Amino acid sequence: MGVETFLFSYETLPFSTSSYPDTIHVNPLEISFLQTSINFTQYDYIIVTSKQAVKALSYYDKEDYQELQGVCISKATAKSFEDIGAKVLEIGGGYGDDLSQIISSYPKETKWLYLRAKVVASNFAEFSRANGYSIDEAIVYESKCSQSIQSVKIPPKATLIFTSPSSVKCFLKYHELKADKQVVVIGKTTAKALPSGIKTLIAQEPSIKSCLESIDH
């Protein structure tokens, strides 16, 4: 791995500099949580697609939601959900299409609550509703591009790792992404956010570790 590897993700990464000494983390987003009014008693299950959605639950009375099991988009999100004392119903493979398949395996009378960002990349909820499933959406957080991503200096030989479409969008707002850069993305949805002509490596699994393992040495 080169000494100039930049990771653009929502969170401070769950590893230390001693584990990945050649990795530099840049947080592209500043998150604001919105305490939208929610009556949790109306729902059978929660859908969470990010750690931010899990964090948003801390703004609500735990007794109101802790008995609701959650469908989590990935193992990392499921771990965050369990860490707050909530119960995981099922775990997807990291993509919205996975969630549509999970939802379709339950009766159409099931009432789902999707905790989401103001802007989302997947339309799985709309797709599921069009097929007769009951899903309400609650916008519990929003994001804007951070000062960190605006001011970061990208060396010529840096490898760039993007872990969300939003991280790509914020990077492109302030920087040019040239075709000679080595770019690794966490999944296909993030890859679609990149400009055409950019050679991209897609991680085998939707995780930071898999992104790092994908880098050409």
Can you offer a commentary on this structure?
The protein has 217 residues and is of the alpha/beta class. 34% of the residues are buried. The N and C termini lie close together (5 Å). Helix 7 links the parallel strand 9 and strand 10. The protein has a 6-stranded mixed beta sheet with strand order 3-8-7-4-5-6. Strands 2-1-9-10-11 form a 5-stranded parallel beta sheet. Residues 10-21 have low confidence and may be disordered. The protein folds into 2 domains: 5-28 and 146-213, Rossmann fold (3-Layer(aba) Sandwich), CATH 3.40.50.10090; 32-143, Rossmann fold. It has 9 helices and 11 strands.
In terms of topology, how is this protein built?
Blueprint: E1 5-8, E2 23-26, E3 29-33, E4 45-48, H1 51-56, H2 62-65, E5 69-72, H3 75-83, E6 88-91, H4 96-104, E7 111-117, H5 124-130, E8 134-145, H6 147-151, E9 159-162, H7 165-174, E10 182-185, H8 188-192, E11 200-202, H9 208-213
Parallel strand pairs: 1-2, 1-9, 4-5, 4-7, 5-6, 7-8, 9-10, 10-11
Antiparallel strand pairs: 3-8
Helix pairs in contact: 4-5
